[in-house]
Design goal:
The protein has 325 residues and is of the alpha+beta class. The chain contains 13 helices and 12 strands. The strands form 3 sheets. The protein has a 5-stranded antiparallel beta sheet with strand order 4-5-8-6-7. A hairpin with a 2-residue loop joins strand 6 and strand 7. Helix 12 runs antiparallel to helix 13. The longest helix is centred in the last third of the chain and has 18 residues. The termini are far apart.
């Protein structure tokens, strides 16, 4: 780990000027559970760390008539224990519950979980100058690709590690961002970026921008949501594949569907074809199976990860059947 300066930010308005204009200049730290790991693994070398925990007013869960508002520094444990989230935004509550361990959820923040960096072993190893770190190639292409992307890959084949991000996307969430030009709100569907747009980053945040709030619109009265995850270990493990889904039914007919896959692409992957297939149709087991097939029709597995196609297909079917019951 290299030497770095450490700054305690006192107001959100000052953060953009403390961060600077390049990624090599400074980074923000919230819970620090991902950043410290990156630094120890020689994947990040910030010259300055800007601590956000000293800024008041960024840790809250509030619901009003428009929906849910969560401060960027709100811990995953606080969201997990929130009765408001559990009753009205089930997919988010269920997603947070299966993130890492209780100890990590007590420290890790929602914004940090959304913005965490890839867990790819090539990216995290100092022995591989991979393309995510400025190298020439993605080592997963000719190497071991068991945990890599089956959608949206190239030139990097990492998968997005967040569980909360697919849930928030399925619920129609957005984020508020503060930068030199002020405050803007960005839909999560527009927040994440594929490697062919920017191979070094996973989202549209600029070096001197920071998330301050997560916003989730109030669900329709007859909408239901859930989050399902398959992992190798029952605890403290990232998704081999996951699905966050929200379905609005009226008289047994799907009025609106939102299906987002996790663990299978460099970004939370919206299954647009599956959503369109469900809308306006009555749901039964055959329809759920066809929806699952539609969700996977564009999958392009690598040498070692074709198993993800079957897992994700089964998750989508299970989610649709459960929500339509």
């Amino acid at each position: 780990m290299q030497n770095f300066a450490y700054v305690n930010a006192t107001s959100i308005d000052r953060v953009p000027s403390l961060l600077g204009r390049t990624w090599d200049e400074a980074v923000v730290m919230a819970g620090g559970t991902d950043l410290i790991g990156e630094m120890k693994e020689d994947a990040a070398h910030p010259k300055r760390i800007v601590n956000l925990k000293t800024i008041p007013g960024l840790r809250y869960i509030r619901e009003d008539k428009t929906g849910l508002r969560i401060g960027a520094l709100t811990t995953l444990a606080e969201i997990e224990m929130s009765e408001v989230v559990r009753k009205g935004y089930a997919a988010l509550s269920q997603a947070v519950f299966v993130i890492a361990s209780p100890q990590i959820r007590n420290v890790g923040t929602l914004a940090g979980n959304i913005c965490q960096r890839p867990r790819c072993w090539y990216y995290r190893s100092k022995d591989f100058p991979c393309i995510k770190k400025g190298g020439a190639r993605c080592y997963a292409v000719d190497g071991v690709s068991r945990y890599h992307a089956i959608f949206g890959g190239g030139p990097s084949y990492i998968v997005h590690p967040s569980d909360s991000a697919p849930a928030l996307m399925a619920l129609g969430g957005s984020i508020k961002v503060v930068g030199p030009q002020g405050v803007k709100e960005v839909r999560l569907d527009d927040f994440f970026t594929l490697p062919d747009m920017n191979v070094r980053r996973e989202n549209i945040l600029r070096p001197n921008e920071v998330i301050t709030e997560i916003v989730v619109p109030k669900p329709a009265p007859n909408a239901k949501s859930l989050f399902l995850k398959v992992r190798e270990r029952d605890s403290i493990d990232f998704a081999l594949a996951s699905v966050a889904a929200s379905i609005t039914l009226q008289n047994g007919v799907c009025q609106q569907a939102s299906i987002v896959l996790g663990g299978v692409a460099p970004i939370p992957w919206r299954a647009t074809a599956a959503e369109q297939y469900l809308k306006g149709r009555r749901i039964d087991e055959a329809r759920a199976q066809s929806t699952a097939e539609a969700a996977m029709e564009d999958a392009k597995p690598m040498r070692d990860n074709a198993y993800k196609v079957e897992i994700a297909r089964n998750l989508v079917k299970q989610a649709v059947m459960t929500l339509s019951a």
